[in-house]
Amino acid sequence: MRTKTKINETPIDFPSDKELLSRLMIGIGEVSRISDVPIRQLRYWEAKGIITPVEPGATVRRYDFPTIKRILLIKELVDEGYLLDVAAIRVQKRIEAIDHAFQTLTKGAKKRKLLPNLNVA
């Protein structure tokens, strides 16, 4: 969904925050700086299947916004003392619960015609 803003009656089409985040892709070095997780550790997490770059097998590793959120959540739990595998499982369960709640709310809102037609799996 785009937001239209008029300046001097000329419509300007800005992408919404959700659209921008869905297109955001950041290289492994910047993700390392943002998350304070060393590049070597990010590569290890990738090798274990805990995270996946946007284009697996590409020479340049880039991550999307959902993966960056996953990295930050896993790091938080690891810093609290959880083992990496346990932290990854807890984060996955949390993400699944949030996705389920969002889908349930969205479907209910669509039925009550509170939201425009959205593609919800």
TrEMBL record:
Keywords: DNA-binding, Repressor, Transcription, Transcription regulation. Residues 25-91 form the HTH merR-type domain. Gene3D superfamilies: 1.10.1660.10. Pfam families: MerR_1. One of its GO terms (molecular function) is DNA binding. PANTHER family: MERR-FAMILY TRANSCRIPTIONAL REGULATOR, REDOX-CYCLING DRUG-SENSING TRANSCRIPTIONAL ACTIVATOR SOXR. This is Putative transcriptional regulator. It comes from mine drainage metagenome.
